[in-house]
Amino acid sequence: MDFTTTRSLDAMVDSLPEDYQKDYKRFKRAIDVLTKEPEPKVGQTPKELIWTKNKAKLYRYQPAKVKTNKVPILIIYALINKPYILDLSPGSSLIEYLTDKGHDVYLLDWGTPGYEDRHMKFDDYVLDYIPRAVKKVLRKSEADELSILGYCIGGTLTAIFTALHPNLPIRNLVFLTSPFDFSDSGLFTKWVDEKYFNLDLMVDTYGNIPPETIDFGNKLLKPITNYIGPYVSLANRADNEEFVKNWTLLQKWVADGVPFPGEAYRQWIGEFYQKNKLINDELYIRGQQVKLSNIKANVLNIAADRDHIAIPEQTERLMDKISSEDKTFELVSAGHVSVTVGKGAVKNTYPLIETWVREHSGA
User: Fold this and answer.
1) In terms of Cα–Cα distance, which of 190, 189, 191 is closest to 272?
2) Fewest beta carbons less than 10 Å away: which of 147, 163, 298, 345?
């Protein structure tokens, strides 16, 4: 049978049983999503730029909105992907949710490193960038204290920073799926074992580690789910416009990676995954020993039960090390990404964070 036009094909489909018609329309819609749909808009919560350093930018969100909570929140993002996962779209945005509740929210966006940034280390982020961002937040908000929320590696950076600056006015810390103990990090432990993984050769060859390499490693943890699953889901649910909208938003973010600065990656794999220095008080940043026991702020530590990137055991171990009198560990039903986006996040994660921060801020 020869179909010279789409119209003639559609006419033939209309003559088929209803179930076949639905299958065809879903398939056609899925193809349109993959080939014709424009990229969705992301990061739509209003913001102002208040400070920059190199590629990094510090943003204040909804600056015109009345702030009813006196303790500002500084979000420290990870070194991979882009931070708009925390402000994906209206109604599915942790940042929007917090600002709508009256919180003064700031985000430290590391930007996109260039080849000239290949020598950037954890030392630079922890001692040169985060302290200045903290000072800018306190000054801009006219506050005496602040809360810091660290997501993924951003939480690891936050813990290191706080441990090295015990006298700064950090009232609350929220860690969101952040790894601290690397004694068992699942398949990553085997993949980056020093016996098999030539870390120095990789960093020396690339300079900065390409985002495709990081994405490949993360996806390979669950290859069928990550490589095939999204397209099967799209084909099965392409007639659900709400699903299609969320699917395109998330796929845009997943594909929108940034390079990992070479020397920081050398530290991340070598000193954290291979030698597990942080949890054992063996990590040094510019000659300063990092002791997690120096952390005394109120702590909310959130892990996701289906997280295969920062498994809950890696996250929970922090609770045994810190000196905080007020510390809470929460295991939520989610994955590493779904803990921040989607209906489950809006219903569970967002209120959990907002309520805890508000109750611990004297607001």
Assistant:
1) 189
2) 298
